[in-house]
């Protein structure tokens, strides 16, 4: 799973026993050599789904990490592009890879923007927020978008209970809950706490109009449904 340039087991253990912020600061120099980086196939499929909805003006990558999302965000946007994250280490890597973009260090649960962007995207970040924290995250993205702006992020289909992946993800979440119960500071990263129906409800409560688009290029499940979909949350031109 890890290349020779990736973190060692000892480095991963140190990161896992840190806070989320400090853990990612430690992991940042080697993050792009781990399976945690957003795959190029997911970025490409998301860009393909968004392209017919554009072109867009300014764009924002929420929880940008080392900046992988900029590869798809920049070609979609005619205005300035920016990334926001709370890890200084991850932002340093992003800035080195994409010096032309703006990089902002902030807690995304209190985004420091108001009606500044036409498009916001996020990749692989929802598991870092407890369900009770999602309303603040989504409210901040809503404020950051101009009227008519779009918030988009991919989400995987739920794994069937007969799947090995389901039990692997459940086991990871249970291990993380035990870790956070006995060790502080907590490291919040869960895979099964953000099902589509709950995310849709929170987005709707924040004021978005929510649809989804299949990412067919990423494959289908046995029942023919897509493995991944792109959530499209639109800020209305006028409040409902």
TrEMBL record:
GO terms for molecular function: methyltransferase activity. Keywords: Methyltransferase, Transferase. One of its GO terms (biological process) is methylation. This is SAM-dependent methyltransferase. Transmembrane segments: none annotated. Pfam families: Methyltransf_25 (PF13649). InterPro entries: Methyltransf_25, SAM-dependent_MTases_sf. Residues 60-149 form the Methyltransferase domain. It comes from the Bacteria. PANTHER family: METHYLTRANSFERASE (PTHR43591).
């Amino acid at each position: 799973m890890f290349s020779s340039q990736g973190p060692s087991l000892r480095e991963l253990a140190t990161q896992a026993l840190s806070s989320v912020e400090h853990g990612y600061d430690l992991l940042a120099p080697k993050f792009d050599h781990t399976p945690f980086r957003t795959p190029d196939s997911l970025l490409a499929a998301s860009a393909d789904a968004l392209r017919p909805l554009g072109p867009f003006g300014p764009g924002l990558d929420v929880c940008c990490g080392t900046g992988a999302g900029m590869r798809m965000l920049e070609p979609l946007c005619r205005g300035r592009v920016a990334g926001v994250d709370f890890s200084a280490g991850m932002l340093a890597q992003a800035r080195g890879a994409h010096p032309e973009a703006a990089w902002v260090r902030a807690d995304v649960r209190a985004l420091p923007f108001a009606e500044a962007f036409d498009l916001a995207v996020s990749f692989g970040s929802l598991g870092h927020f407890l369900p009770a924290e999602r309303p603040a995250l989504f409210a901040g993205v809503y404020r950051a978008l101009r009227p008519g702006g779009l918030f988009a992020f991919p989400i995987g289909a739920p794994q069937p209970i007969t799947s090995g992946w389901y039990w692997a993800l459940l086991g990871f979440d249970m291990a993380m809950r035990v870790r956070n119960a006995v060790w502080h500071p907590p490291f919040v990263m869960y895979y099964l706490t953000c099902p589509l129906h709950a995310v849709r409800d929170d987005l709707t409560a924040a004021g978005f109009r929510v649809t989804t688009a299949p990412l067919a290029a990423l494959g289908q499940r046995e029942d023919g449904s897509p493995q991944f979909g792109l959530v499209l949350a639109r800020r209305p031109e006028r409040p409902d």
